[in-house]
Amino acid sequence: MPRVWADLEELARMKRRAKTETSQPEAKYAGEITCPECGTKLYHEAGCIRCYSCGWSRC
Q1: Residue ranges of the alpha helices (H) in 1-59?
Q2: What is the pTM of this model?
Q3: What is the DSSP letter of 30?
Q4: ∠54-57-59 over CA atoms, to 5°?
Q5: Any residues with CB less than 8 A from the CB of 34 and at least 6 apart, and which?
Q6: Which residues make Cβ contacts (< 8 Å) with residue 3, sequence separation at least 6?
Q7: pLDDT digit string (tens) for 31-47?
Q8: What phi, psi does 47 have (nearest 5°)?
Q9: How do 48-50 and 41-45 pair as beta strands?
Q10: What is the CB neighbour count within 10 angstroms for residue 25?
């Protein structure tokens, strides 16, 4: 198998792994709190409350 194909297969494996892992491991769901801008869930991240949908944040 040519090296290029091996690299593409490895890239595909990495993308699948990234989709299954949490993109924000330190972020925790803030419970029933919803975003005042768009109404979706808010998350605690690095001492702030943040919305991943619209980008709203309160620090």
Answers
A1: 3-20
A2: 0.48
A3: E
A4: 175
A5: 40, 41, 42
A6: none
A7: 778 899 998 989 888 88
A8: 80, 5
A9: antiparallel
A10: 7
Q: In this predicted model, what pLDDT tens digit does every residue of 1-42 receive, in sequence order? A: 556 666 788 878 877 776 655 555 456 766 778 899 998 989
The domain limits of the chain are 25-59
Residue indicated by tokens 């989709």: 19
Residues in the chain: 59
CA distances to 8, 32, 39 from 44, in Å: 36, 12, 16
Mean pLDDT for all residues in the chain: 77
Which amino acid belongs to residue 37? E
Whose structure tokens read 């090296």?
A: 3
